[in-house]
């Protein structure tokens, strides 16, 4: 009979890694930050990678004409390839602000997180998010990220 797996690493109770290689990820739902939506931009959730169930948020100014606005890909950070999501309020607020202030279309993709998915999974997802975009063919494209997301910009 084998022994029970021992806790090897505990990251604030959000991610727990065990000696047998298994891990536990809790949902992070309690944020002290609220979404600051002034109504100047709209967003929608779009599937961009069916195989890995990865989505993007697509942000656009409500007042935008049919002009071909620049596109800004924004890659979130917040946890060394282990934490973060385009849906977190801090990321969502930042993308709303970018879209509004810079008059751009903002695309904020999620990517697979460690330890469930080892590198280069996140890098592959970032590259695929940019590659799969039909917008990139006829608009100015900018790529931006913070923390871990800035690392991903090097591979997209």
Kindly summarize this structure in a few lines.
Helices cover about 20% and strands about 30% of the residues. By secondary structure, it is of the alpha/beta class.
Helix-and-strand structural type? alpha/beta
CATH names the topology of the largest domain as Rossmann fold
Give the name of the CATH superfamily of the largest domain.
Alpha/Beta hydrolase fold, catalytic domain
Q: Using the alpha-carbon principal axes, give the shape.
A: elongated
- Indicate the radius of gyration in whole angstroms: 17 Å
Number of helices: 3
Explain how this protein is built.
With 156 residues, this protein is an alpha/beta fold. The chain has 2 domains: 1-28, no CATH class; 41-153, 3-Layer(aba) Sandwich (Rossmann fold). Helices cover 20% and strands 28% of the residues. The strands form 2 sheets. The chain has a 5-stranded mixed beta sheet, sandwiched between helices. The protein has a 3-stranded antiparallel beta sheet with strand order 1-2-3, with no helix packed on it. A hairpin with a 4-residue loop joins β4 (41-49) and β5 (54-61). The termini are far apart. The mean pLDDT is 85.
């Amino acid at each position: 009979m084998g022994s029970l797996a021992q806790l090897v690493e505990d990251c604030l109770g959000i991610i727990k890694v065990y000696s047998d290689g298994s891990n536990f990820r809790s949902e992070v739902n309690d944020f002290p930050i609220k979404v600051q939506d002034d109504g100047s931009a709209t967003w929608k959730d779009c599937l961009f990678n069916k195989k890995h169930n990865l989505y993007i948020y697509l942000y656009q100014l409500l007042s935008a004409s049919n002009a071909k606005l620049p596109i800004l890909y924004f890659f979130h950070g917040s946890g060394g390839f282990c934490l973060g999501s385009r849906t977190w309020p801090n990321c969502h607020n930042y993308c709303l602000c970018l879209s509004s202030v810079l008059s751009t279309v903002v695309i904020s993709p999620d990517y697979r997180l460690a330890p469930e998915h080892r590198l280069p999974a996140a890098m592959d997802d970032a590259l695929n998010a940019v590659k799969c975009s039909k917008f990139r063919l006829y608009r100015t494209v900018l790529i931006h990220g913070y923390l871990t997301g800035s690392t991903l910009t090097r591979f997209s």
